[in-house]
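Notes, p. 3: input format for complexes.
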Amino acid sequence: MLNIDLTGKVALVTGGNSGLGEASVKALSSCDAKVAICHLPSQGESAMQVLDQLGRPKDEAICVPVDISSYSSVLAMFEVIDKAFSRVDILVNNAGIDGKRAELVDADITQWEEVVKVNLFGATYCAKQALARMKAQNSGTIINMTSVHEYIAWSGYSAYAVSKAGLSMLTKTLAQEAGGYNVRVLSVAPGAIKTQINKDVWSNPASLSDLDEKILLGRPGDAQEIGNVVAFLASPFASYITGTTVVVDGGMLDYPAFKHGG
Ligand code: BGC
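Output follows (262 residues plus beta-D-glucopyranose):
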């Protein structure tokens, strides 16, 4: 039996208070990793709820407020983590936003920039700090949450797609920089997973059936199906996987439209 045991490991999950971040926190915690649930300062309440659900002792799980789009805020977050745990073994760069749907000509440029600042710059700031610690430890794993939209163009969401494609290249480049230090860097690319970010789509029967047709398995994924993969990739069972993207999309990237002729 494969039993994922992350005892003694410290995992930091940005956006750990909801959606895929929450699922990642729960999966990592269930494998006994210590966890830092990093959350926007305005989302402390939901972070505390997730923390309570873990039922871990105070020195094994904490909540840390951060706005990852600000480098100084990221530095402050790592200070808290250093004090609490003195190491970082797993960084899940999960926090992200998709912005308001708008074609570029109509988009508010400040909102466009905000998406890239959070998804790409924010993940970069966290990776920089985590990598410094992991190189010194000679061990660690960074998991960047991208999306099928690191591959699939998405009209109305250019900032989101650009940020995810950029994050994928960050993964590959940092994996080169980190490999010699026994640090692995990976992307997980979820397809349509039922979370708040796409609730408008899956809670409406017409748009849900349109979405189902874009997925070979005919259904959106569950957040736990991403959390499971995150825990596996962070574990020694994935010790030879680095510099690549693991796609978890129910077959969205496999041209489902081609099920019916061509
Ligand atoms: C987006 C979701 C979308 C999915 C598939 C994800 O990255 O956040 O809103 O359903 O991609 O298009």
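The mean pLDDT is 98.
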